[in-house]
């Protein structure tokens, strides 16, 4: 009996009818003939409600299921599929309320779907997580009503399903094509002119317009009777590391995503491209202590190892210890490598404190320092101030933006490669820099 009462609900149509009947009873106090009519109407509503309840509880009910992907991609839209099968011999109306994980703070989820007799239907909705970790879905509640919509029966399915949110593998797949030598044009991706001949020999091919005339193979040309050129490919099996600063400077959020998560998503996409280019990729995270060190490798399983490691990377409110980074790199990364260092500097004094360690790293490795534009401050530089307060804010914003440019120039002055980028353009700019370094043979 208790189970029956917990599953029984009444629709708005019933409450509206009861409200109308009560009004009619009130009016019948002055207009007596209406009193009998109102009683008849009340009995009809009562009988229809009882028949409605009997219809809902006599049938075999419905079946429903929530289908979740194996894992969610952070900062991307992920699909969740709901399937419903109607086992009643008549048309019903379903109201679907899914208990979405608390991280989304979405409490207004409701889908209404009509279901013909003995039919099934499905729909999908999308969720965009902004934090890595485990997400728990609660109950899938479905309220079924007949065409009268006087009563409802609740069905509960899929209790406590869990899904893990990993770094953005969707973004990684979107940028996967950049590993190909013949890249199609895309907004934000630039072509890199190859300089020098530090690449490995690949083959001899027929000359086409645009090939470097310095690569003409005169012996092969004499044999074939046509201009033939040597074709080179980038050097392979070079160690490349994503070095991620997990200190408090990476806690800053932009559009709901922290700088650390932007760096993690970018390093996964960049590592995938580097693996496709036959390089060895590794990972090093650090703050006031070394978090995770994954030695560089070109094995097929390396990308999965990196994804699992990046899933666990987290940031705190500690100051970053670059001296610890230098000592650990010197001890464990003995071969000259490309170090893509994801960090952030908001003031010149912050850069000056860490510059000696960056210079020391640059003597042994090719270091690329990647830090971020403060896009919220940059927006202030483009406004048209209407009062003294806005003018003062704009002046401070311009000073901050100018300091970012000065920091990039200071690093370049000491022979350290830099990327100053907007958070949302991080992956594209990082991969562009990597392709530039490969094409110029800097490593």
Automatic annotation (TrEMBL):
<keyword id="KW-0472">Membrane</keyword>
<keyword id="KW-0812">Transmembrane</keyword>
<feature type="transmembrane region" description="Helical">
    <location>
        <begin position="37"/>
        <end position="57"/>
    </location>
</feature>
<dbReference type="InterPro" id="IPR002881">
    <property type="entry name" value="DUF58"/>
</dbReference>
<protein>
    <submittedName>
        <fullName>DUF58 domain-containing protein</fullName>
    </submittedName>
</protein>
<keyword id="KW-1133">Transmembrane helix</keyword>
<feature type="transmembrane region" description="Helical">
    <location>
        <begin position="14"/>
        <end position="31"/>
    </location>
</feature>
<dbReference type="Pfam" id="PF01882">
    <property type="entry name" value="DUF58"/>
</dbReference>
<feature type="domain" description="DUF58">
    <location>
        <begin position="204"/>
        <end position="370"/>
    </location>
</feature>
């Amino acid at each position: 009996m208790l189970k029956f009462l917990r599953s029984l609900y009444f629709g708005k149509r019933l409450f509206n009818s009861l409200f109308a009947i009560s009004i009619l009873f009130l009016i019948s106090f002055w207009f007596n003939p209406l009193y009998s009519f109102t009683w008849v109407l009340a009995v009809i509503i009562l009988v229809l409600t009882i028949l409605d309840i009997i219809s809902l509880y006599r049938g075999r009910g419905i079946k429903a299921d929530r289908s979740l992907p194996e894992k969610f991609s952070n900062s991307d839209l992920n699909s969740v599929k709901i399937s419903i099968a109607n086992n009643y011999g008549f048309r019903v109306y379903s109201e679907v309320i899914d208990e979405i994980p608390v991280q989304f703070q979405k409490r207004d989820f409701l889908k209404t779907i009509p279901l013909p007799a003995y039919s099934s239907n499905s729909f999908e909705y999308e969720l965009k997580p902004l934090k890595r970790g485990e997400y728990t879905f609660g109950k899938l509640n479905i309220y079924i009503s007949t065409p009268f919509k006087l009563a409802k029966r609740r069905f509960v399915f899929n209790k406590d399903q869990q899904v893990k949110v990993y770094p953005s593998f969707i973004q990684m797949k979107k940028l996967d094509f950049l590993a190909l030598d013949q890249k199609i044009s895309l907004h934000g991706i630039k072509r890199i002119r190859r300089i020098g001949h530090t690449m490995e020999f690949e083959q001899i091919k027929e000359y086409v317009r645009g090939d470097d005339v310095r690569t003409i193979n005169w012996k092969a040309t004499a044999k074939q009777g046509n201009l033939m050129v040597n074709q080179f490919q980038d050097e392979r099996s070079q160690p490349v590391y994503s070095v991620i600063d997990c200190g408090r400077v990476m806690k800053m959020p932009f559009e709901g995503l922290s700088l650390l998560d932007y760096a993690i998503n970018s390093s996964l996409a960049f590592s995938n491209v580097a693996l496709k280019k036959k390089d060895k990729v590794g990972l090093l995270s650090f703050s006031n202590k070394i978090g995770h060190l994954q030695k560089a490798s070109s094995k097929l399983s390396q990308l999965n190892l990196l994804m699992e490691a990046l899933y666990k990377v987290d940031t705190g409110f500690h100051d970053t210890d670059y001296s610890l980074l230098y000592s650990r790199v010197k001890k464990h990364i003995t071969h000259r490598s490309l170090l893509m260092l994801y960090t952030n500097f908001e003031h010149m004094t912050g850069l000056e404190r860490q510059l000696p360690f960056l210079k020391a790293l640059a003597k042994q490795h090719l270091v690329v320092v990647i830090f971020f534009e403060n896009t919220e401050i940059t927006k202030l530089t483009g406004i048209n101030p209407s009062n003294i307060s806005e003018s003062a804010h704009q002046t401070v914003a311009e000073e901050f933006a100018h300091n970012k440019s000065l920091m990039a120039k200071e690093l370049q002055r000491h022979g350290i490669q830099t990327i100053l980028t907007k958070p949302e353009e991080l992956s594209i700019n990082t991969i562009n820099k990597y392709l530039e370094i490969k094409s110029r043979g800097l490593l």
